[in-house]
Amino acid sequence: MDINFVRRNIVDIQALEIVQHINNHSLVIVDIGNDNIENKLSILQEQLGSYVYHKHSGKHHRDGLVAISASPELYKDKVLRPQNTSRIQNPHTDGATENIEPIILGLHCLERAEQGGESIFVPVSSIVDALWNNFSESELSPLFAPDACCIKRGDRVFKRPVFSLHHYGEEVYITMTQGYHEFTHVIPSEECTTTYEYIIEFVRDVRNQTRLALMPGQSAFFINNELMHGRLEWIDSPQRTRHFIRAWYDGNSPSLKDLKLGVPFKRISLD
Ligand SMILES: O=C(O)CCC(=O)C(=O)O
Ligand SMILES: [Fe+2]
C-alpha cells in the first residue's frame, strides 16, 4: 500500500508542507486541534484552493464545510443522507453528482464514535494495477467513456466516466471519477458491468484497504480522485457522538499549479 502518513503537530507543520505531501500523492494527517477549526480550514484555502460549495454546508456556516454526524441535533429534517447516518460508506470519490468536483478533501475529526467509524482508504493506483492485471485493453476502454455509468441520485440522473485521462505533455495520468456510493444508484453500461463490479468488490475487500481511526483534533487531507475514501459504521454514546467536518477545496492555488492530477497511466494506450 503506497500511502504515506505524515503525523505532525500543527505547531510545526506549515500549510505548504501539506501541499508538498499532496503533491507527492500522500495521505496527510495533521493534528490541527479543534479550537477555531472553521478558521483553520478556511485559511488553508490559500494553499489548497477555494472551497467547493455544497448545499449542506450551512451547518458549519461556510460554503465548503459539511458536518458529518448522526446526531438528531444537526440534521433535524429526518431525511437520510450520507452526512447524517452512522451506516457504512464504502470507498468512493466525492462530488460525482456535483457541477464542480472537489480536488482536495479534508476530513476533520471533532469527535470520534464510541465504537467504529474508522476511516477507510483505497489508492486508485492499486485499483488500476489490479485491473491491468486482470483485464484486457478492450475490456477496460469502456470505463473511460463519458457515459460509462448512469448515476441516479434522488430524481437526478447523470452520465459519468469511471476513469479519466489527464495529459501533461508526454505524460498521461489517470483519475477515478466515479466510485461506488451507498446513496447513489450507479448503473454501469453493459460493456462496463464486469469491470465495474470487479472494482466494487476490490475496494470493499479489507485486504485492499487501509483503515485508521482519526482522533479528535486530527485532519486527513488527500486528493479526491486519487485516493478513494469511506468509513465504517459506528455507534454513538452520550459521551462520544461522532462528529466530523468534511472540507472540499478546488485545488486552484499558486502552490498547486504544478500538481499532476492522477496516477501514472501505463501499459495500455487509448485514443
Ligand atoms: O464519515 C466519514 O468519515 C466520511 C464521510 C464521507 O465520506 C462523506 O460524507 O462523503
Ligand atoms: Fe465522501
What is the strand tally?
18
Q: CATH topology of the largest domain, what is it called?
A: Double-stranded beta-helix
Mean pLDDT: 86
* Helical content class: 10-25%
Q: Multimeric state of these chains?
A: single chain
Topology as H/E string? EHEHHEEEEEHHEEEEEHEEEEEE
The gross shape turns out to be: globular
Which structural class do you get from the secondary structure elements?
alpha+beta
How does this structure look, described?
With 271 residues, the protein is α+β, with helices and mostly antiparallel strands. It folds into 2 domains: 3-121 and 211-258, Double-stranded beta-helix (4-Layer Sandwich), CATH 3.60.130; 124-201, no CATH class. Helices cover 17% and strands 31% of the residues. It is built from 6 helices and 18 strands. The chain has helices spanning 15-23, 37-43, 45-48, 124-134, 137-140, 193-204, and strands spanning 5-9, 27-31, 65-69, 89-92, 104-111, 115-116, 119-123, 149-153, 156-160, 163-168, 171-176, 185-188, 210-212, 218-223, 227-231, 234-235, 243-249, 263-264. A 6-stranded mixed beta sheet has the order 1-2-14-5-17-3, with helices on one face. Strands 4-15-7-13 form a 4-stranded antiparallel beta sheet. A 3-stranded antiparallel beta sheet has the order 9-8-12, with no helix packed on it. The protein is globular, with a radius of gyration of 18 Å. The relative contact order is 0.26. Bound molecules: 2-oxoglutaric acid and fe (ii) ion.
